[in-house]
Amino acid sequence: MSNHLFDAIRAGIKPDAPFIVTASGETWRYADMLALSAKLAHALVKRGVQPGDRVAVQVEKSPEALMLYLACVRAGAIYLPLNTAYTLAELEYFIGDAEPRLVVCTPKAKDGLEPIASAKGAVVETLDDKGGGSLMALAANEADDFDNIERGPDDLAAILYTSGTTGRS
């Protein structure tokens, strides 16, 4: 068995081909994606994330946030994106319900989220919209290759909550 989702993402890529071109004109190559997602996957494992564990993520959109999703896929973790507009009460519900091993948030949200995450047995790391934060610092010295965790087609890659407009998410 392989990591079928990441294998599909990686299939046929050319390392120097553009993967992302940002609104500001910054280009990320496929090689950049492979390297940073590997470093982040190592950081996830270092923080205790195991296959099937949830990683709750409440960060601004950025290339690094996408790399974090890919790192979760590579590490066999389940990515749980959370809207940046959620209140602490809403986040307490999601964290309690999903039981993540790790919560990644913006640096400004850390103080509010840490007691909630800690009470549920999760640790908190940060990621800002400029590619900084404690998770990136943890990943900085990691290897830029990673032996992807085997996952099957029935294994979860993400959990998405509904908006909750007609009831509880």
**Average pLDDT, to the nearest integer?**
92
How large is the radius of gyration? 16 Å
Biggest beta-sheet profile = 4 strands, parallel
Helix content: 25-40%
- The counted number of beta strands is 6
- Uncertain spans, ≥5 residues at pLDDT below 50? none
Q: Strand order of the main beta sheet, please?
A: 4-3-5-6
Structural class, from secondary structure content?
alpha/beta
Number of helices: 6
Q: Report strand %.
A: 5-15%
Helix and strand sequence: HEEHEHEHEHEH
User: What is the distance, rounded to the nearest whole angstrom, between the alpha carbons of the first and last residues?
Assistant: 34 Å
Global morphology: globular
Short description:
The chain is an alpha/beta fold and 169 residues long. It has six helices and six strands, in the order H-E-E-H-E-H-E-H-E-H-E-H.
What does this molecule look like?
This protein is an alpha/beta fold. 38% of the residues lie in helices and 14% in strands. The chain has a 4-stranded parallel beta sheet, sandwiched between helices. β5 (102-105), α5 and β6 form a beta-alpha-beta unit. α4 runs parallel beside α5 (110-119). The chain is globular and about 45 Å long.
Summary keywords:
169 residues, 6 strands, 6 helices, alpha/beta, 14% strand, 4-stranded parallel β-sheet, two-stranded antiparallel sheet
Break the fold down into its secondary structure elements and pairings:
Blueprint: H1 4-10, E1 18-21, E2 27-29, H2 30-46, E3 54-58, H3 63-75, E4 78-81, H4 88-98, E5 102-105, H5 110-119, E6 123-126, H6 134-139
Parallel strand pairs: 3-4, 3-5, 5-6
Antiparallel strand pairs: 1-2
Helix pairs in contact: 2-3, 4-5
